């Protein structure tokens, strides 16, 4: 298979975007939870929400970018 299919490229873009977004969201969520002095176990919920939200947004945009570049050959 010399060239990847469009679906494989988009899937890889979503996966990489989700991983990068999750890492950034976890770091940012931890920082915000500590800075805002979120009490007790609500920190875990806050960090989780930030991580999942960031991963979803990054994955969406990286997948969309991969989809736009599918038809172009360089």
TrEMBL record:
GO cellular component: TIM23 mitochondrial import inner membrane translocase complex
One GO BP annotation of this record: protein import into mitochondrial matrix
Alphabetized PANTHER family for the sequence: REACTIVE OXYGEN SPECIES MODULATOR 1 (PTHR28525)
Organism superkingdom: Eukaryota
Species assigned in the record: Salix dunnii
Coiled coil: none
Localization per Swiss-Prot or TrEMBL: Membrane
Pfam families: Romo1
Name assigned to this protein: Reactive oxygen species modulator 1
Keywords: Membrane, Transmembrane, Transmembrane helix
Family label: Belongs to the MGR2 family.
Residues passing through the membrane, by range: 12-31, 51-70
